[in-house]
Design goal:
This protein is of the alpha+beta class. The chain has 5 helices and 4 strands; from the N terminus they run H-H-H-H-H-E-E-E-E. A hairpin with a 2-residue loop joins strand 1 and strand 2 (100-107).
């Protein structure tokens, strides 16, 4: 009886550890350009937890990122693979003030112009996705 309960406890612990998601430690961006690049790259690669880390944490931004994730997941395997291998083409970096950076960019698959706005908030550089253009 004791041995049986030990086996069940072991299996239960194994199941708990197997189902828990690993904690990812992302490095905070040192500047607006780094935050913007990390965010854009994470979106292209389908790493939306990383993209979220580099984004202002509010409901509208979360909803917009969920929409981008849904569009990414709708692509077939080849489409997602193409995005993962796409390169970011930064056309211009503008700094209208000391707490805002605007990246004008495209990627090697989609050459349409996009704008990503990065702001410094509480000493952290974060993408304000709701003010950026897709």
């Amino acid at each position: 009886m004791m041995k049986m309960s030990t086996v069940w406890i072991g299996l239960l612990l194994l199941l708990i550890f197997a189902c828990s998601s690993p904690t990812k430690n992302f490095t905070p961006a040192e500047n607006g350009l780094d935050a913007g690049r990390e965010f854009i790259d994470a979106c292209l690669k389908g790493d939306f937890s990383k993209a979220s880390f580099y984004m202002v944490d509010d409901e509208k931004n979360k909803l917009l990122l969920l929409n981008v994730e849904a569009a990414y997941r709708e692509k077939d395997k080849e489409g997602r693979q193409e995005l993962r291998f796409a390169s970011i083409n930064i056309k211009e970096v503008s700094e209208p003030n000391d707490s805002t950076v605007i990246l004008y960019h495209s990627n090697s698959l989609d050459t349409s112009a996009k704008q990503t706005i990065v702001i410094k908030r509480n000493n952290s550089w974060l993408v304000n996705f709701k003010q950026s253009t897709k």
